[in-house]
Amino acid sequence: MAVEPLSKKDVEERLQELPGWSTDGDRITRRYTFDGHFQAAAMVIHIAQIQEELNHHSDLTLGYNTVALAVNTHSVGGKVTGLDVELARRIEAVAPGHGAR
Ligand SMILES: C[C@H](O)[C@H](O)[C@H]1CNC2=NC(N)=NC(=O)C2=N1
């Protein structure tokens, strides 16, 4: 089935199940904070593993004790699709195990 862009309203509805995630309509974003830099770096590796599994990749920025993500779907011209929401769900599922908040 073809991947279709979601309206901003649809994205906002889906993000209600993903606390901390937000959208400007063209991407979904979240910033996690950690107790230390290595915890943040470990989360980056885990996210990379999930992204390879899904073949869907965020813009991922490792800061001091932070990890910032932005994701949209390039193949539909940089809009948000269900693939982005699925990636966010998968990342949220592992975040508590990394002490992310
Ligand atoms: C060929 C391969 O399926 C594409 O390049 C994938 C890889 N990762 C991707 N990641 C994201 N965020 N959007 C895409 O459209 C995308 N496309």
Give a description of the structure.
- The chain is 39% helix and 18% strand.
- It is α+β, with helices and mostly antiparallel strands and 101 residues long.
- A four-stranded antiparallel β-sheet has the order 1-2-4-3.
- The protein is globular, with a radius of gyration of 13 Å.
- The structure holds ligand H2B.
- The site of ligand H2B has 7 residues, from loops.
- One of its GO terms (molecular function) is 4-alpha-hydroxytetrahydrobiopterin dehydratase activity.
Number of helices: 3
Q: Going across the major beta sheet, what is the strand order?
A: 1-2-4-3
The total beta strand count reads 4
Strand content: 15-25%
Give the biggest sheet: 4 strands, antiparallel
State the shape.
globular
Q: Spans with pLDDT under 50 lasting ≥5 residues?
A: none
EC number: 4.2.1.96
Family: Belongs to the pterin-4-alpha-carbinolamine dehydratase family.
Enzyme class: lyase
GO molecular function, one term: 4-alpha-hydroxytetrahydrobiopterin dehydratase activity
Précis, in short:
The protein is 39% helix and 18% strand. The structure holds the ligand C[C@H](O)[C@H](O)[C@H]1CNC2=NC(N)=NC(=O)C2=N1.
List the helices and strands and how they pair.
Layout: H1 8-15, E1 22-23, E2 28-33, H2 37-54, E3 59-62, E4 66-71, H3 82-94
Antiparallel strand pairs: 1-2, 2-4, 3-4
Bound molecules: ligand H2B.
